[in-house]
Model the fold of this input.
Amino acid sequence: QVQLVESGGGLVQAGGSLRLSCAASGRTFSSAAMGWFRQAPGKEREFVSSLNWSGGKTYYADSVKGRFTISGDNAKNTVYLQMNSLKPDDTAVYYCAADSLFLRGLNGVINVGPDYWGQGTQVTVSS
Done:
């Protein structure tokens, strides 16, 4: 059984920073991509960012471009999300995801049903 375990969420003032981490553990785990989604109260879960292990290609939602940076260590099955210049609109539960094919395709298609989800970590940005 594979588990994705997130950490690093919390409460921060607008303009502040947080760094989320996600580590995969369990039986032999191999993914093509890892990344992050988020879900705010009353809204659908949305794509935030992803990292393709092959080639290191990264993708970001328009709403976080220039503020968030994704990075990772394939050997450790770990992905990070550095979030800077946080806004109240960034308040959400952030979920780590991993898939054997992709999270965001070259044509912009988002995989809304990845192989694995983390349990989520709350990020709250106060104004």
About this structure: The radius of gyration is 14 Å. The chain has a mean pLDDT of 95. The chain is about 0% helix and 50% strand.
